[in-house]
């Protein structure tokens, strides 16, 4: 028993931050933070749903949802939302669809989908209808994705994927700067290259600096279990205000961009973590 609890601890956080810490090595060493935010019922359900092989090697699950894009091609459009160019707004009815205009096939629709599936969870009998292990792995990953501002981006540049930039001396694309580079640079510059220290700093701000705001992050209007439309609207606003702002093809992004955008990344990581825990607590209440 003790062992399975211990193995759940790092996995939870690793799942939490999985979309923004894609390198498996980043996943190691993150311990015990989210568990404090999960109710007993939610922690037990999560423990029950995680595959047994997770105990042995957590890093293989960290990027599970990214890893199955080839095996499950239908899941690829579920990682993001394309919104109209330069409008800087999101609405579910207008924007939550895939390239074939299939309604609901976007990250907000996927969060609703896997939340509904997990609401059928019954500790006493495994679901015959859904694979709830997959539902949990998808949900955890997508709650992270939807908080990454450029996962809710403009249609024509594919959320910054077609905008070439230089991150200091390296060539990359704007989307990747927000997925990886800002976090990596922060780790290297401030946190002794350790993701654990970085996550500790975030957790400290969640219980300190930001504690007054956390109940507002957790809440959904009309008693919904989760509210991805809110998260997506915040992301496209942050994409316009921070990610796209002052960036053009071949922009050189260095200290000024890094210093002004890191607080936005920190906030979105924290909100994603808090909201995943709150969503799981409501699902398994
Ligand atoms: C765990 O999985 C990761 C990614 O799948 C792999 O790179 C790593 O070697 C594995 N570690 C162990 C101890 O099996
Ligand atoms: C909902 O989940 C099922 C099972 O994983 C999947 O086949 C379907 O494409 C999902 N739909 C959306 C919109 O996420
Ligand atoms: C559910 O999905 C997990 C992860 O892909 C897999 O390991 C497991 O075998 C699946 N369970 C069933 C009953 O198909
Ligand atoms: C935590 O909050 C302090 C004070 O606002 C800030 O300087 C620091 O960058 C924050 N750290 C993280 C990781 O959010
Ligand atoms: C939300 O749920 C709480 C507790 O179940 C209830 O007291 C409240 O009236 C509900 N609010 C709305 C808007 O449904």
From TrEMBL:
Q: Which CDD domains match?
A: S1-P1_nuclease
Any Pfam family hit = S1-P1_nuclease
Question: What is this protein's name?
Answer: Aspergillus nuclease S1
Q: What is its EC number?
A: 3.1.30.1
UniProt similarity note: Belongs to the nuclease type I family.
Which keywords does UniProt give here?
Answer: Disulfide bond, Endonuclease, Glycoprotein, Hydrolase, Metal-binding, Nuclease, Signal
Species annotation: Oryza rufipogon (Brownbeard rice)
UniProt entry tagged with the keyword GTP-binding: no
